[in-house]
């Protein structure tokens, strides 16, 4: 059995402004609040905290993200629910924030391939499920839906607080016994789902690993009046700025073959899932299914893992500051070799 990792985004209107001060070098602080009807056990809360601590060890943005967590009774067969607050932001504002926040080589590549101007051009699914190149400068081209935690990573302010959190992650009490809440030598029993992996995944959604393609797909599946607002509001996310189907082809259509790319589609880093209803059967707010990544749409029993390089590249590109990786031994050798050569050159110059 595998644990299906789902996401239910909720958009909230929030005020938005530019933060005044440059962040200093610290770490992401995640504040968890237990909103279970019966308080979580110390073991359960500890596992949630371990997942939060994991992200704090990887992301160095000096911001605080508030997440309500817990176990409650949910509807039949619902394992868990995660939702994030989000705000509509103009593409111009978002692009400026991405440029100003760029620190890594990944960021430099990513921002240099962003479309210029104030209106995006992309391939999009229409209300009748057809596809067209949407470059008509309507609201869906000019505004994006950005998770409040992602806004914080970009130095943009929100009005979230401990009582008005950035996200809510709730699991079903009925499935509580199917989880293992601690890892032993990095592993969990073969018949248990690793709660820490699941919690890290859900926090990843809260931090901005989401796609507006799911909102379109779910609207089409429900066949309701939201189809009439595809052009008139923000639907797509910062992560959708890196969703391609070919070189130069930004593509937020439901279904097909889509991949994560930071160089305008020239290089595919990882495949994306493409929709629970009209796509590959999995929510588009995930990487694909064939490679183990933290943000793939499911975790199998007995499996334990954290973010991969692909996962971290995505968080880096959408505005997070990723802690520098510890160089591998071969890189150390290269670095030391480089320093030795530099020292030699200086001595020669001094001689
Ligand atoms: Ca449009
Ligand atoms: Ca970054
Ligand atoms: Ca940042």
Notes on the protein architecture:
- The protein is of the alpha+beta class and 351 residues long.
- The protein contains nine helices and 18 strands.
- It has one domain.
- The protein has a four-stranded mixed sheet with strand order 3-4-11-5. Strands 15-14-16-17 form a four-stranded antiparallel sheet, with no helix packed on it. Strands 1-18 form a two-stranded antiparallel ribbon.
- Helix 1 crosses helix 6 (195-206).
- It is globular, with a radius of gyration of 21 Å.
- The chain starts with a strand and ends with a helix.
- Mean pLDDT is 89; it is low at 9-24 and 332-351.
- The structure holds calcium ion (CA) (3 copies).
- One calcium ion (CA) is lined by residues 103-104, 107, 316, 319-321.
- This is Ice-binding protein C-terminal domain-containing protein.
- Residues 325-348 form the Ice-binding protein C-terminal domain.
- Residues 1-27 form the signal peptide.
Secondary-structure map with pairings?
Elements: E1 2-4, E2 17-18, E3 29-34, H1 42-58, E4 64-72, E5 80-84, E6 86-90, H2 91-101, H3 105-112, E7 122-125, E8 131-134, H4 139-142, E9 143-147, H5 148-153, E10 156-157, E11 167-172, E12 179-180, E13 193-194, H6 195-206, H7 212-222, E14 243-246, E15 249-250, E16 258-260, E17 270-272, E18 298-300, H8 309-317, H9 329-350
Parallel strand pairs: 3-4, 4-11, 12-13
Antiparallel strand pairs: 1-18, 2-10, 5-11, 6-9, 7-8, 14-15, 14-16, 16-17
One calcium ion (CA) binds next to loops.
